[in-house]
Specification:
The complex is a heterodimer of chains A (about 280) and B (about 60). Chain A has five helices and 14 strands. Chain A is an alpha+beta fold and about 280 residues long. The mean pLDDT of chain A is about 90. Classes of the chains: A alpha+beta (about 280), B mainly alpha (about 60).
C-alpha cells in the first residue's frame, strides 16, 4: 500500500492510495470513520437556581433551550485531542476521572447575548481550548445566565458521533481515460459532455487533461459518435478524500488510522498463528 | 430554532459559519457565492445554512 498526497491541509486530505485492494481501501475508510479516539464532552453539570454576579445582580439559570439540547450541542463541539490520553476504562484511576483521561471545562456567562463554544474554558491546560470559538450554543436574555461544568473524555465514534474525527470519507477507483487516436475526429463532443471538464482541445486533438477529476460517469463514452473513448477504473489504485473536524489534523488522523489498522491486522495474524 | 452545530448528513461543523453567512447575505451578497467563499462545497452542508429558520429570538420572549 502506497500513499501519495494530492492535497493536504490541516483539516482535509486528498491522496492516491495505490497497490491496494478495494477491501483495504474500505478498511481504511471505516477505520477513519469510527476507530480514531477523540476528546468530547460526555457529562455536564448545570447549576440551577439564581446566579448572583459581583455587583449583586441576580440572574435566572433558565434558557430558551432545554438543558438536554444545550448538553448535546456542547458534546458536538470539536475539542483539540491529545492522543496520549487514555480511555477512562483503561486509565489508572479506573474511570473516576483524572488528568490523564479527562478534561474539565466551565462556562460562566451572563446575558444578554449568545453563548459560544469559545466561552468553554478548560480548567487546567489552556491547550484544550475548543478549536472553533464561534459555534453558537444558546442565546440568553438580560435576566439569564449559564453556569456549568462539563467533563470531556476520550471515546470512539463507534459509540457516539460526537467522538467522530473524520467526516466525508470516501474513495473512487483511479480513472483510466483512453482516447483512440485513430478513431477520434476532434469533434469535441466529449469536451462539451464532460461534467468534470476532464478533456481539453489541443491543436484539434482531444486530450484527457485532468484525469483525477473524472468520476467515471461515462457521459463522454455515450457522447462520442465514433466510439473512440473508453473510461475504466483501476481496482488497484484509489483516490481517497476525507476531512476532519479539527480535533486532530488530517495527517495525525491518517497516521492514527493506519496505526490502528496494522495493530488489528497484527492481532488477527497472531491469533491465526496460534491455531497453527 | 438555533443553527445546528454540525451538518446532519456529513458531520462537518457548520454552526460557526451561520452568523457570517447571515451578515454577508443581508449585506447584499448572493447566498451561493457566500457559501463558496466559506468553503462549504457539499450540498448537505450548504442546505444546513440555506434552509435554516432562526426562531430562537421568538422563543426567548416567553422565558
Amino acid at each position: 500500500m502506497k500513499i501519495k498526497f494530492l492535497e493536504l491541509t490541516n483539516t482535509s486530505a486528498r491522496f492516491v492510495l495505490s497497490d491496494a485492494t478495494p477491501a483495504e481501501a474500505n478498511a481504511l475508510r471505516r477505520t477513519l470513520l469510527s476507530e480514531i479516539p477523540k476528546l468530547a464532552i460526555d457529562k455536564v453539570e448545570i447549576l440551577l437556581g439564581n446566579i448572583r454576579d459581583e455587583s449583586g445582580k441576580e440572574y435566572e439559570s433558565v434558557t430558551p433551550l432545554f438543558d438536554e439540547i444545550i448538553v448535546h450541542r456542547l458534546a458536538m463541539v470539536p475539542l483539540p485531542t491529545d492522543l496520549s490520553m487514555k480511555f477512562p476504562s483503561e486509565c489508572g484511576c479506573k474511570g473516576e476521572g483524572c488528568q490523564s483521561c479527562s478534561v474539565i471545562y466551565t462556562i460562566n456567562k451572563k446575558g444578554p447575548g449568545m453563548v459560544y463554544s469559545g466561552d468553554l474554558i478548560p480548567l487546567g491546560d489552556p491547550k484544550f481550548k475548543p478549536v472553533d470559538d464561534l459555534i453558537p450554543i444558546v442565546k440568553i436574555n438580560e435576566k439569564q445566565a449559564v453556569l456549568l461544568y462539563a467533563t470531556a473524555i476520550m471515546g470512539r465514534a463507534k459509540e457516539h458521533a460526537k467522538w467522530q474525527v473524520a467526516h466525508a470519507v470516501g474513495y473512487k477507483y483511479y480513472p483510466d481515460v483512453k482516447i483512440n487516436g485513430e478513431k477520434c475526429t476532434g469533434c469535441t463532443e466529449c469536451i462539451n459532455s464532460c461534467p468534470k471538464k476532464v478533456f481539453e482541445n489541443q491543436d484539434g486533438k482531444v486530450v484527457a487533461k485532468t484525469v483525477d477529476a473524472c468520476d467515471l460517469c461515462g457521459a463522454c463514452v455515450e457522447a462520442c459518435p465514433k466510439g473512440a473513448l473508453s473510461v475504466t477504473g483501476s481496482e488497484k489504485d484509489f483516490i481517497f478524500t476525507f476531512e476532519t473536524d479539527g480535533s486532530l489534523s488530517a495527517k495525525a488522523a491518517l497516521i492514527k488510522a493506519l496505526d490502528i489498522l496494522s495493530t488489528s491486522f497484527g492481532r488477527v495474524k497472531d491469533t491465526l498463528s496460534m491455531l497453527g | 430554532m438555533i443553527i445546528p452545530v454540525r451538518c446532519f448528513t456529513c458531520g462537518k461543523v457548520i454552526g460557526s459559519y451561520y452568523e457570517v453567512f447571515k451578515r454577508r447575505v443581508e449585506g447584499g451578497e448572493k447566498p451561493g457565492e457566500v457559501l463558496d467563499s466559506l468553503g462549504l462545497k457539499r450540498y448537505c452542508c450548504r442546505r444546513m445554512l440555506l434552509t435554516h429558520a432562526d426562531l430562537i429570538d421568538d422563543i426567548a420572549k416567553f422565558d
